[in-house]
Fold:
Amino acid sequence: MYISPFGATIFMANTYSQITIHAVFAVRYRENFILRDWRDSLHQYISGIVTGKGAKSLAVGGWKDHVHILFGMPLTTCVADFMSAVKANSSTWINEQRLVKGKFQWQSGYGAFSYAKSQRNVVINYIMNQEEHHRTKSFKEEYLKMLTDFEVEYEDTYLFEFYQ
Structure:
């Protein structure tokens, strides 16, 4: 079922999918704003956004300066629109809750990678253990490895702003 921009309900007969997306996005200026005392609440809120947008939330986790989400992609939207909504709604929530001084923003862009259903448990475990993972690897190392592993061509100019 799809609701058109004009409010009409459209049923998509014989349309089925299983598309699992792992998305990663970072805090603007890579500030370590996502603090332990409210990180879980943020992840729960993002999971609610994902579900509210018609996707299946499989995992939300992250670290002080970035978030990972794993979700079953809905048929009724594209990744760009979906991620725009997740980032806009979550940054609004952070600002309304006054969880940081000043205005919170995510960096522009994100990484999105597809996985088979059989790989979900490995990715969920990876996302849910970000604190442990980042004891030995920086976000830059993590993200560049993802791009390399997925054979994504990129230009350094258009990557996240990586501050050491």
About this structure: The radius of gyration is 16 Å. The chain has a mean pLDDT of 90. Helices lie at 36-52, 79-96, 120-128, 130-133, 139-149. The domain at 18-147 is CATH 3.30.70.1290 (Alpha-Beta Plaits).
